[in-house]
Write a structure and sequence with these properties.
heterodimer; A: 332 residues; alpha/beta; eight-stranded mixed sheet; four-stranded antiparallel sheet; B: 318 residues; Rossmann fold; 2 domains; three-stranded antiparallel sheet; transport (chain A); ABC_transporter-like_ATP-bd (chain A); ATP hydrolysis activity (chain A); Oligopeptide transport ATP-binding protein OppF (chain A); P-loop_NTPase (chain A)
């Protein structure tokens, strides 16, 4: 039986918006952006779970909740059976050590005034990973691990290319010997060939070090390639989750279907085959009632406008949140 | 066309001998990695590169040469006959002016329409690019639009003066796939309706496959392969194109090692003497390090700059 490292239970996150003058005068309550609307998922030890969805759907918010950069409004994240947002757990830094995050922008996530060596040493010191005289040796080891030359430790971030910077970010995350890595669009800013190098490195490190990875990205091909399981998020809700190959080759939720077919195929003969999705992601400010996707869905009916569909197992393919999943997939 | 930038006494050849043509209604894709010269090509065509660098060669536009054209004359063409869409819909609109004003500004500069007619035309353009309730939205500021909608506004502004050539610099890179599909559809549809030529810069081979008629692959400031999309993507002949195709994770067993072209692109101040790709190329032969391979026709409609191009059979295998 697979064991869950991280259990996310019904996570909600609402950001209050400032009340405008008009709101105050008319006594209207402040508006609220609902970034996450009840996300539940288990992250199993040693797996890579891909998270896909359009921008603004809550992918990054979820990642940030997991590393406690945001405090959820409701719900819990359990690590080793304990809720990480408990008062007792909040002050416990070992969680921060064991779950590490890597960010999208390699230009702003490294301190421009610190050399690579200092960046890595800082991580080691904060978590007391090595005695003071062992830090240099560990920095050297980390650079080897991510295949950067030893002289890199004396250089500043601006002397590196985007791909090299992401290697530094990986080294910094690995410095504290984490069990779980959260990769938020780690390679999105890189060219395909550099992307390939960084992804290869990540996959190798994962199997060498037995890491669990939450891989957040909008590049569907890449997510398919690296993930064991994938969750599709729409407006702060998981609409489908399941085995990566099954989901990508045979998506069940109408949104997953549309999202996957919107990714341009490499084959010029596929032209015009994509099912086009009309409209845009509704604003999380005015969340439509019912299924979050109903306004853009071809199959939407009355019930979709009123009731939020539950995420339920579907034909052994994973879990799908759709009222009409059976009819939709019966035609296929 | 060649474009050279200068940095503290050093010449950086950003573009070297780039030649291509676009006809009416044709969509040409320019692909390559960052720094390969795609955007500089567009900026050199429309004269935006001249302030920063030295553009030589010829850009022939309806019988006239744009490279040597005085700024004043060029401004008559910029925006009116040749329009450009930039990559960042977030930063290429003026945040202090309403969208309507920015649209009308273009019309004021390039047409003789009256004030009322300009306003009607602005509404018509927003309708055309699929922005709902266009009339009300003219009064909105850029921050009140989403990324996809802002890019539509950019397209509306670019197309307001009915240009004959559209230069699109990564118009969808900052957008989500579902919105990307909508925007590309829109550009294609408008190109067809207005019989407009399009040069589409992108780094996404999928976008090329789904939208372009012809494609030119750029590497270190040169075109290394050029031809109809179908042929180039299905049977690439230049080793760099082959490498680029292979590094896209598709049709691969999951979680296996991804292919990546070994090495890194050369820096512009240290270009190798021969073929710029030679140091990274597996098919490199002796002459590659000595001479620069010219872009030459190897089969019908296909130009490749390589002394040892991949044969059709090998291309299939890759």
């Amino acid at each position: 039986m697979k064991s869950a490292v991280l259990q996310i239970q019904d996570l909600h996150l609402r950001f209050p918006m400032g009340r405008s003058m008009a709101d105050v005068v008319t006594g209207r309550p402040g508006r609220v952006v609902s970034a996450l609307n009840g996300v539940s998922l288990d992250l199993y030890r040693g797996e890579t779970l891909g998270i896909v969805g359009e921008s603004g759907c809550g992918k990054s918010t979820l990642a940030r909740c997991i590393v406690r950069l945001y405090k959820p409004s409701e719900g819990e994240v359990r690590f080793d059976g304990k809720d990480i947002f408990d008062a007792a757990q909040r002050t416990d830094r070992s969680y921060n050590r064991r779950v590490q995050m890597m960010f999208q922008d390699p230009y702003s996530s490294l301190n421009p005034r610190m050399t690579t060596g200092q960046i890595l040493a800082e991580a080691l010191r904060v978590h007391d990973m090595r005695p003071e005289d062992g830090i240099l040796a560990r920095v050297a080891e980390l650079l080897d691990l991510v295949r950067l030359p030893q002289d890199a430790q004396h250089k500043l971030p601006h002397e590196f290319s985007g791909g090299q910077r992401q290697r530094i970010a990986i080294a910094r995350a690995l410095a504290v010997e984490p069990e779980v890595l959260i990769a938020d669009e780690l390679v999105s800013a890189l060219d395909v060939s550099v992307q390939a190098q960084v992804v290869n490195l990540l996959l190798e490190l994962q199997s060498d070090l037995g890491l669990t990875i939450l891989f957040v990205a909008h590049d569907l091909r890449l997510v398919r390639h690296v993930s064991n399981r994938v969750a599709v998020i729409y407006l702060g809700r998981i609409v489908e989750i399941g085995d990566s190959e099954t989901l990508f080759s045979n998506p069940a939720h109408p949104y997953s279907q549309a999202l996957l077919s919107a990714a341009p195929s490499l084959d010029p003969d596929d032209r015009g085959k994509a099912t086009k999705l009309e409209g845009e992601l509704p604003s999380p400010l005015n969340m439509p009632p019912g299924c979050p996707f109903h306004a853009r869905c071809r199959h939407a009916s009355e019930i979709c406008k009123q009731q939020v569909p539950a995420l339920l197992p579907f034909e052994g393919r994973g879990e799908v949140a759709c009222h009409h999943v059976e009819e939709i997939n019966a035609h296929a | 066309m060649c474009t050279t930038f200068h940095r503290t006494g050093q010449a950086l050849p950003a573009l070297r001998d780039v030649s291509f043509s676009v006809s009416q209604g044709e969509v040409l894709g320019l692909v390559g990695e960052s720094g390969s010269g795609k955007s500089v090509t567009l900026r050199s065509i429309i004269g935006l590169a001249r302030r920063y660098g030295n553009v030589t060669g010829q850009v022939r536009w309806q019988g006239r040469d744009l490279v040597g054209m005085p700024d004043r004359a060029l401004r008559q063409i910029q925006g009116r006959e040749i329009a450009m869409i930039f990559q960042e819909p977030m930063t290429s609109l003026n945040p202090l002016l309403t969208v309507g004003l920015q649209l009308e500004e273009t019309l004021h500069a390039h047409t003789d329409l009256s004030k009322v007619a300009r306003r009607d035309r602005a509404i018509e353009m927003l309708n055309l690019v699929g922005i709902p309730s266009a009339k009300q939205r003219l009064k909105d500021y850029p921050h009140q639009f989403s990324g996809g909608m802002r890019q539509r506004v950019m397209i509306a502004i670019a197309l307001a003066a009915t240009p004959k050539l559209l230069l699109a610099d990564e118009p969808t890179t900052a957008l989500d796939v579902t919105i990307q599909a909508q925007i590309l559809d829109l550009i294609l549809q408008l190109a067809q309706d207005m019989d407009m030529g399009v040069v589409l810069v992108t780094h996404d081979l999928g976008v090329v496959a789904q939208t372009c008629d012809n494609v030119a692959v750029m590497y270190a400031g040169r075109i290394v392969e050029q031809g109809p999309v179908r042929g180039v993507l299905k049977h690439p002949r230049h080793p760099y194109t082959v490498g680029l195709m292979r590094s896209v994770p598709e049709n691969l067993p999951p979680r296996t090692s991804l292919y990546s072209v070994p090495g890194v692109p050369p820096s512009l101040d240290a270009l190798p003497r021969g073929c710029a790709f030679a140091p990274r190329c597996a098919a490199c032969v002796a002459s590659c390090e000595q001479d620069r391979p010219p872009l030459s026709l190897i089969t019908e409609g296909r130009q490749v700059a390589c002394f040892n191009p991949v044969t059709n059979e090998q291309g299939n295998a890759a």
